[in-house]
Specification:
The chain is α+β, with helices and mostly antiparallel strands. The protein has 20 helices and 20 strands. The chain has a 20-stranded mixed beta sheet that branches.
C-alpha cells in the first residue's frame, strides 16, 4: 500500500505534465490575411488540409476513382490527428494537421510579343506551419522540388541563405521557376521573386497587410468563412481592376489600352462592391457560393432582370445530348430584363462611361448577330437559352417566338444587311458557310448564332442526337434545388479528368491513358455542374455544385500552369 500511493501520485503528475505539454504545444489559429499584402488582387484562405482531404475523398466522383484505381482512402484516426497536432508525430503529419494556408495573386504582369499579349499572374502560397524551421526545412525543400516537377516537369533546384532560407527550382528549359522562402514557422512559395518578396515585406512590417480590410472582415462573417473549406475574396478596387483587364475583349479591343482600362476600372468600382466565395461539401460534391456585392441602388434596379415567371421546358427538344454549357434565363420579361441592366449601369456612370458600358452590354447579343436588342427581345419570350455546342467556338441563342412577323423583320435588318447572315426555315437546309451568322426558325423557336457553330449543331438535330432522359435525370440530380432566374449547366467531362489526374498524382498514383478512358465512362454521371444565380439584398448570389468545385480547379491549374500562354 505504501508503494502504491507514490506510484499513483507519480502517474498523476506525469499525466498532468504530458497534458500541460500537449496544451502548451498546441497550434494557435492565426488570421492568414495578416500574412499577405493589402493590395493582393485575389485572396484564398485554406484553414484545414485534413478537412479538404476528407471533403474530396467524400465526393461521389472520387469514390468512383478510388474504386477504379484501388486507391487507399483511409483517413488518419482521431487519436492520430491529436498526436500529430501535438507535434509528436513525424514532421509531415505534424505540418499537414496544423498548417493554415493563404493563396494570393499579388499582381499581374503583361507584355506584348509578336502581336500577342502575355499575361502572367504573380502568385504566392503562404503556409503557417506552426512548426519550427529546423524541423520543416528539409521537408519544405523536397516538397518545393516536387511542386516544381508537378507544375513544370523536370526541374533543377538550388538553395541559398540570406535573411531567410531560400529554395529555387527552375524548369529544365525556360524561364519559369518556383521560389520558396522559410521564415520562422512560415513558408512562402511563389512563381516569381516579386510574389515571395511582397509577402516577406508584410512579415517585416514594410508594407500593410490585408488584415485591416473591413470589407474582408464583413465578407467572412456574412459567408461564415470560419467553417468553410475555402474562402476567397476580391476587394472592390481589385474586382474593378480585374474587370477592366477582361472587358475590352467584349467590345473588340485588345487588352493593354491603359486609358480604357483606367476608365473601365473607375466606372466598375461605382457598381461593384467586391466579390467573396466559399467552398463546402454538399450532396456528394462540392458547392461553391459566390457573393458579388453591388451598389444598393444598382441591386434595386436589377430586380426586373431576376423576376422569374412560369416558363416551359419545351426547349429541351432542341438541346443535343453533348454540349459544353447551357444557360437558361427564366426572366419573366426578356425586354424588361434588358432595360433594367441598361438603367442599372447608366444611373451610376457619367456619359462617356455609360456609352462604353452600353457597348459592353450590347456585345452580349451582338455575338449572335443581333444589332437591335430591343426589337428582338420584344419578339421572343421566356426562357432564353444560350447553348455552347461541343464543336464551334461561339454560343447559340435558343428562344420561343412570341411575334414571328416582328422577329423576322428585326433579324432581317440585322443579318441580311451587307450579306453577313442568313435566315433558314428548316433544319434540313445547309447553311452557307460564307455567311457569318445564321438564324433558323423551327417549331415555334428561333436559333441564332455564328454559322461555324450552327452547322455542327444542326447536324446533331438532324441525326436526332438529342439529350437523353438519363442525362436530364443526371442534371436534375445535382444539388442546388432552389429556383433561380439564371441556371447554368456545364459539361465538365474533360476538365474533370484534368482534375482527377493531378489529384491521383498527389495521392502517389500515376494514371495511364487506358485508365483515363475507363474513368471517363465511370464519371459520366458526375460530369455536369449546375450554377444557380439569384438576386440577394447584397447583390448577385451564385451557387455552383460540381464534382470537386474550386478545390479541383486550383489543383489542376497548378499543374497546367497556363499563365504564360499568349492571349490574342
Amino acid at each position: 500500500m505504501k508503494i502504491l500511493r507514490p506510484l499513483i501520485v507519480l502517474g498523476t503528475l506525469t499525466l498532468i505534465i504530458i497534458t500541460a505539454l500537449l496544451w502548451w504545444n498546441r497550434p494557435v489559429k492565426v488570421d492568414m490575411s495578416s500574412y499577405v499584402p493589402a493590395d493582393s488582387l485575389v485572396y484564398i484562405e485554406i484553414n484545414s488540409l485534413p478537412a479538404i482531404t476528407d471533403a474530396v475523398q467524400g465526393t461521389d466522383a472520387w469514390k468512383k476513382v478510388a474504386a477504379e484505381l484501388a486507391l487507399n482512402n483511409k483517413a488518419p484516426s482521431a487519436a492520430e490527428m491529436v498526436i500529430a497536432r501535438s507535434g509528436l508525430a513525424p514532421v509531415r503529419a505534424v505540418i499537414l494537421s496544423r498548417a493554415q494556408m493563404a493563396l494570393v495573386v499579388v499582381g499581374i504582369d503583361t507584355a506584348e510579343k509578336d502581336d500577342s499579349l502575355r499575361i502572367k499572374p504573380d502568385v504566392a502560397l503562404v503556409v503557417e506551419t506552426h512548426t519550427t524551421r529546423w524541423r520543416t526545412k528539409d521537408l519544405v525543400a523536397s516538397n518545393i522540388q516536387r511542386l516544381a516537377e508537378f507544375a513544370y516537369g523536370a526541374s533543377t533546384c538550388k538553395e541559398r541563405a540570406g535573411d531567410v532560407d531560400y529554395i529555387e527550382c527552375a524548369e529544365a528549359s525556360g524561364a519559369r521557376k518556383i521560389i520558396g522562402a522559410i521564415d520562422g514557422t512560415v513558408v512562402i512559395v511563389g512563381n516569381s521573386d516579386k510574389a515571395v518578396e511582397s509577402c516577406l515585406q508584410v512579415r517585416r512590417g514594410q508594407r500593410p497587410s490585408l488584415h485591416m480590410d473591413q470589407e474582408l472582415s464583413q465578407a467572412k462573417r456574412r459567408l461564415k468563412a470560419e467553417s468553410a473549406l475555402l474562402f476567397g475574396y476580391v476587394s472592390q478596387i481589385n474586382a474593378a481592376r480585374l474587370f477592366s483587364l477582361g472587358a475590352p475583349l467584349l467590345i473588340g479591343k485588345a487588352p493593354g489600352d491603359q486609358q480604357l482600362e483606367q476608365l473601365l476600372s473607375s466606372s466598375a468600382a461605382k457598381i461593384i462592391r467586391g466579390v467573396a466565395w466559399t467552398s463546402e461539401p454538399a450532396a456528394g460534391g462540392i458547392e461553391d457560393l459566390y457573393q458579388i456585392s453591388l451598389d444598393s441602388q444598382v441591386t434595386k434596379r436589377l430586380e426586373p432582370a431576376f423576376d422569374t415567371g412560369t416558363s416551359s421546358d419545351a426547349f429541351w427538344k432542341l438541346i443535343p445530348d453533348s454540349f459544353r454549357s447551357l444557360t437558361v434565363y427564366k426572366n419573366h420579361d426578356p425586354q424588361a430584363a434588358w432595360v433594367s441592366l441598361d438603367s442599372a449601369l447608366a444611373m451610376k456612370l457619367d456619359a462617356l462611361s455609360a456609352v462604353i458600358f452600353a457597348s459592353l452590354l450590347k456585345s452580349g447579343l451582338s455575338g449572335f448577330g443581333i444589332e437591335d436588342p430591343k426589337q428582338v427581345l420584344t419578339s421572343i419570350s421566356s426562357p432564353l437559352v444560350t447553348l455552347r455546342p461541343m464543336l464551334g467556338e461561339s454560343s447559340l441563342l435558343v428562344a420561343p417566338i412570341k411575334d414571328e412577323v416582328q422577329l423576322r423583320k428585326a433579324l432581317s435588318a440585322s443579318l441580311l444587311k451587307d450579306g453577313k447572315g442568313q435566315i433558314l426555315n428548316d433544319i434540313g437546309v445547309d447553311p452557307d458557310k460564307e455567311k457569318e451568322f445564321t438564324a433558323v426558325f423551327v417549331n415555334g423557336f428561333v436559333i441564332i448564332g455564328k454559322t461555324d457553330s450552327m452547322i455542327p449543331y444542326l447536324g446533331q438535330l438532324r441525326n436526332k442526337e438529342l439529350i437523353t432522359p438519363d442525362h436530364l435525370a443526371a442534371m436534375d440530380a445535382i444539388g442546388n434545388k432552389g429556383s433561380g432566374a439564371i441556371v447554368t449547366y456545364s459539361n465538365e467531362r474533360d476538365s474533370l479528368l484534368n482534375m482527377v489526374r493531378p489529384l491521383c498524382q498527389l495521392s502517389g498514383r500515376q494514371v495511364s491513358e487506358a485508365e483515363l478512358v475507363e474513368l471517363k465512362q465511370r464519371l459520366e454521371q458526375n460530369s455536369f455542374s449546375r450554377t444557380v444565380s439569384i438576386l440577394s439584398e447584397d447583390g448577385i448570389e451564385r451557387r455552383s455544385q460540381s464534382a470537386f468545385g474550386q478545390i479541383g480547379s486550383i489543383i489542376s491549374l497548378a499543374q497546367a500552369d497556363s499563365s504564360s500562354k499568349p492571349t490574342r
